[in-house]
Structures are given as C-alpha cells and as structure tokens.
Amino acid sequence: MVKASPVASGSMGAKGRNPGRGPAKDPAKMMTLFVLVVVTLYFGREVLIPITLALLLAFLLAPLVALFRRWRLGRIPSVLLVVTVTIGVLLGIGSVIGGQIGSLAHDLPNYTKTIETKAAAIQAETIGRVTKFMQPARKTAQGGAAASAPAATPGGQMAPTAAPARGSTGVTSHWGVVKEVLGPVLSPLATIGIVFIVAIFALLQSEDLRDRLIRLIGADDIHRTTIAMDDADSRLRRYFLTQLTVNTTFGIVVGVGLFFIGVPNPVLWGVLSALLRFIPYIGSMISALLPIALAAAVEPGWSMALWTAALYIVVEGITGQLIEPLLYGHSTGISPFAVVVAAIFWSWVWGPVGLFLSTPLTLCLVVIGRNVKRLEFLDVMFGDQPALSPVETFYQRLLADDADEVVEQAETLLKDMTLASYYDEVALPGMQLVAADADRGVLEPEQLDTVKTAIYELVETLAEHVEPAGDGRAEGVLVAPAGLEAPAILSIAGRGPLDEPASAMLVHLLQQQGIAGRLVRYDDVSRHSLQHLDVSNVAMASIAYLDISGSPAHLRYLIRRLRRYLPEGTPILVGLWPHEEPALQQERMRTTIGADHYASSFADVMAQCRSVIEHRSPVEPATQIA
Known about the structure:
Largest sheet: 5 strands, parallel
Order of helices and strands: HHHHHHHHHHHHHHHHHHEEHEEHEHEHE
Oligomer: single chain
C-alpha cells in the first residue's frame, strides 16, 4: 500500500493550502503596516468614503454601460445616459420617501392623544410603581434635609444666588443664518455630487483603471492577477444582485403586510425596510422600530403593534434562515464570523457607511488574499474555506488527543467518499505526518502511544461503517463455499511507529469486502518468532510501510525469511510506497527488495488481493456473489 501524497490529499479541503510553511513574516512589520492602514482609513475617511462609494457605483453601473456600448451609443453617451437614469431613479425613490414622510408628519397630531394615553399607562406601570415604593425613603431624606437647611440672611431673606451670565446677542449676520440652516443639507449634497463625478470618470476610464490595478498588484503574474480580478468581479456581482433581489422582495412583502394590517404609509415602511436591510444584521431591526411605534400610536390597543412585530419576525426569519442560505450558499467566500468582525471594524472606522460597505470590502480582501501569496493570511482569517486540509485536521486532532473529533471528521467525510478512499486520502497521509515528526524526534513516546490508541479507536469505530452499496461488500467478492476455510491475507506491519495501525486498516478493509485478513505484528516475523506464525491457508502476505527510502536492508531480509517459511508460491506485496521517490529510484528499490507486487494505495492492495484470491488453486472452488 503505497502512501497517498499529503499534498494531493490537501486539495480536498483548503485548496492545497499549507499554513505555516510559507515564507516567514516579520510580526513587527506586519503590525506596523496594519496600524498604518487603520490610521489612514480612519483619518482619511472624509476623502476615502466618497471615492469608495464612487468606485462601487461605477462597478455596479459598468454592465449597463457595456450594454449601451454594444448598441453603438459610444462611451461618453452611454456613461451619461446610465448616470442620468441612475440619478432619476434615486430622485424618484427620494420623492416617494419625502411624500410619505410629509403625509406622516401631517397625520401625527391625530395620534397625539393615543400616544399620551399609552405613555401615561406605561409610566404608571413602571415609574409610578418605583415612585410609590421609594416614598418612605424620600420622606426620611426630606426630614434630614430640613434640619440641615442653610441659614437665612439677617433680614430673613435667603442669600441671593448669582444670576447666570448673559450670552451673546445671537446671530450677528445673515451669513450665520444661512450657514446654520443650509449647512446640514449642503454637506450630503456635496458628497453625493463628488460620488457621481468620480463615478463618471471611473466609468469613462474603466479599462485604464483596470490596467493600472493589474500593474500595481500583479504585473509579474498577469494571468493570476486577471483570474483574481475576474473572481472578485463575479463574486461581487452575484452578491449585489442576490442582495438586491432579496431585499426588494423583503420590502414588498413587508409593505403589503403592513397595508393589510392597517399601518399608515405602508409604502414608506416597505421602501425603508428594503433599503435598511442592506445594513448587515441590524438593518431589518431598525426598519421594524418605526412601524411598530406607529402601529402602537394609531390604535388604542396593542393588537396592531403585535401584528406588525410578528410580521417582521416571520418575514425576516424566513428570509434570513431559509431563502438567503439557499441563494447565497458560499458564493461570497466569507465566513459568518468574518462578516460580524468586518461589520464591527468598518462601522468603527467609517461609521454607518462602513457598516453598509463592510461585506463588499471584506470580500475584496478575501479574493486578494486567495490569489496573492503575501496576503494569504487575509483568506485564512476571513475566507469560508477550511483553514486546514482534512489531512492536517486529522493530524492535529491526533496530536490533541481528541479521538472523538477524529471519528466525527471521518463520519462526515464518509458521507461523500468510500472508506478505502478515506484511508488513502486522509488517514494515511495524516499518519505519515505523525511518523515524520516521530523520526525527527519532536514527538514524545507518550504522544506517539496516544496517537496509536486514537487510530485503533478510529479503526474499531469504522468497523461498523456500511458502504452505501448495501451490506458493505463490493460486487463480485469471492467467498469460500460452505465447509471450506476462506484463504487469508496476512497484513504484516513494518517496523515504523505507525505501520501496525496501517496494517489494521487493511485488515478492516479486507473483512469489509468479505476477505479474511489477519494482522501480524513486526515482532511476530522476527528470526526468533517467525516459526510460530500460522501460515496455513494463506493467499498472500502484504507488508505495510508508511515510509521507505534508500535501500532498506531489513525489508529485504524480512522478505527472504517469509519466502523460506511461507508456502511455496505465496506472493508477497509491499505497500505504502512514497510518491516523492523518482520513478527510476523506485524501480531500483523494487529490484533490490524483490517483492512480487507493489501497491500505491489501499485501493491497489485490495485490487491485487482480490486478483490473487480469484486465481486461487482450482482445487478450492469459490462462489461468485453478484
């Protein structure tokens, strides 16, 4: 059974990622760079936020510009037309929201009495009870205060207190009034104007900006950089398209529901619900507060408010827990933990705008980390792919003395792969990592014994595993007829620290396929113990080595001893051959060792064992099971 390559097996999990084995990074330099980036983002937010919004807007509008250009409208007319349509849509949404807010402001005085009545009732049930409870203590405090009251002046008057100083006479110029009134309005309008101007230039020079970005981040590997940019482009577009569809549907359903419940201005709340839901996690909760409060103000009772709250809970629950997982899947490539951390970080750096941009910005960082080796830590920290491959996870769980998690991982992987494939692609490469560390002396004997025990527990637990085909036996398995003993395969362990557990895995697989297998320890085939070995009715001897290099003399002598003691003509197989050996060196090694068969995996061993048993002596017939 030749060993499966750990590198090849690692591709099952984290795309061959091998954490901890890349070039060493200076922690001080990394921390300094991180601090500089954060400081730049924080203090440069007045400039960076409009630019980021503009680039995001240009990214979203680029497909429409490309569509108009395919209609031969030209670059400049296409860009101006798309931007004009976008401004028109935004103005239309703004006018709807403004009209609804005006209607709501006109009707609010009608709800004043209901609000005052409910506020008084709530105050009586909360503050009133606390006040009544605190009255005895207040009387006691008032008595003490009277005893220690300040003395009056000789004229019987209390000492006058100093009058507060009069301030300035108010605004001294018309410019101050204009600035005070129009300042809060002009600042957002100026920001919006900057965003659209930068977006127009970004759309006009999209190809030039793309080439400059390629030159900046990866001119030495244009192919990889292009793949990274295409990956980011596709992920971001899928994310925004899916989010736009989901949030628009959410707003429509909420608006229709509020209309039937009877909440005033359902169009306003539907639009706000759709817009605020772009803010991760808290957007839908914020959008629910005002309709619930308005429902409580409209009706003397609480039924409308409760129905409104139930509507948001049900719709948000179905959307967040059912629809979004089905639509998004792993299309964004960001882990849920990273989404939360990114929302906290970007909202701290850039406020509400940062909260809105947190997912797109983090997605760009993940894509860059996935394709730029020096920034791979970004993908490890924020990506949704496993940080460790199945092989590395298997090894880590063994070292952590967590046999239960080893079994849990195996049961999870066995839902999508056969037991032989699991042993070949996960267990054996993981055991080879353990054996390599044992050879280097980094594992204590106690740790090695713990690992062996965990592997035996794994094999024992998986002995109950049944392949999806049915009873665990592959089609075409040969078994001996009634009254005759089935030929057996001797699974002989090498002298490595984990060769014996590997031999136990082979015995398990043989038994699962209906082939008799017997585990033989390395000490049982020594010169002094070999004569006591039971070799009756043996079909083949398989010697397991997790790692062989050079020209191992002990293996040659072991094969010679077995040939003298085994029945004449019994084939001998050597398995778990290292893939790293060059082909010519492997051939020389095989010639030197002198075995009859060699295998590169458990699957190869099983195939050769079946072949040997099928061609067993015709004196002992076998029955073919379909």
